[in-house]
Structure formats: structure tokens, C-alpha cells
Task: inverse folding
């Protein structure tokens, strides 16, 4: 296909596809692509059309009719297909990185805080009574201790979070 033919036919194809698209229920770009493909196939087998503009108009109308027939035969799903709600690989990697950063920060905390927060973050879902027994402190002091440790963790993570937000 010569570049002259493409340059000549491009505006006509865009106009014809736009004019036919609404009635056929197709997108103008889809009609254009189908006609370009037809032209390439024709050039490969029969050579260029004798009347390129006339051929193009007929090809657009033919593609529009095909699109209308296809859309009449297509039926929507009775119900939406179920979505896969599992996280993708990027989400899994980001979540793992956040967990690593949190656990690294917890390990850097002073005093009993690493053990206390590790117990609170434990997948065992320990009760306050079990955590207090494990740490050897009274259950009543667990809440205030937890608040102090979370404050330390917040101060420790603030620069890291601010650095991540500045990049994102």
C-alpha cells in the first residue's frame, strides 16, 4: 500500500466510519481498523482497487452491516461473570513489603515493645490476658504500655511513610 493512498484515504475513512458507526452500534475506530485490514488483504491478493474512494465507502458500509448483524446475535450475560477478587502479584508484593517494613520497625522498638506488639500482631489472635501472662505484666498495664509502644512505632515509621509518599 503506498503512502499516497493511505494519506488520501485516511480522512475519507475517518469521516465514513464516523457517519456509519452510530447506526451500526460500533466504534468508529473499530470500523476503521476493519476496513484497513480489508484493504491490506485486498492489496495482497488482488492489488489496489481501481476506484479507491468508492471501494472504501462500500467497505465501510459492509463492515457496518456486519457489525449490526453481530450485535443483534450477541446477548448479554444473564448475570455478571464473577470477578476474581484475589489480589494480583503486584498487590501481593506490596503487601509483603509493608508487612516486612512493619515487622522490621517493631523489632527496632525499645524495651518490651517488640515482644508486646509482636504478640498483638500474632496470627494466634491472643487475648489481653494471654499476652499479659506471656510478657509477665499485669493485664491492667497492658493498655497503657500498648499505647506507648504504638506512639514509639508511629514516630519511628513517620519518616519512612513520609519518604514513601514523597516518591509516590
Result:
Amino acid at each position: 500500500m503506498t503512502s499516497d493512498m493511505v494519506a488520501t484515504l485516511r480522512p475519507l475513512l475517518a469521516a465514513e466510519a464516523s457517519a456509519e458507526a452510530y447506526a451500526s452500534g460500533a466504534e468508529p475506530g473499530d470500523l476503521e481498523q476493519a476496513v484497513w485490514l480489508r484493504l491490506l488483504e485486498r492489496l495482497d491478493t488482488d492489488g489496489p482497487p481501481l476506484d479507491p474512494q468508492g471501494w472504501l465507502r462500500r467497505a465501510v458500509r459492509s463492515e457496518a452491516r456486519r457489525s449490526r448483524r453481530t450485535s443483534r446475535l450477541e446477548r448479554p450475560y444473564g448475570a455478571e461473570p464473577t470477578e476474581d477478587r484475589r489480589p494480583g502479584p503486584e498487590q501481593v508484593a506490596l503487601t509483603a513489603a509493608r508487612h516486612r517494613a512493619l515487622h522490621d520497625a517493631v523489632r527496632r522498638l525499645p524495651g518490651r515493645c517488640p515482644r508486646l506488639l509482636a504478640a498483638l500482631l500474632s496470627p494466634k489472635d491472643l487475648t489481653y490476658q494471654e499476652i499479659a501472662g506471656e510478657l509477665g505484666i499485669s493485664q491492667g498495664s497492658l493498655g497503657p504500655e500498648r499505647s506507648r509502644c504504638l506512639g514509639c512505632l508511629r514516630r519511628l515509621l513517620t519518616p519512612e511513610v513520609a519518604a514513601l509518599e514523597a516518591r509516590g
About this structure: The mean pLDDT is 85.
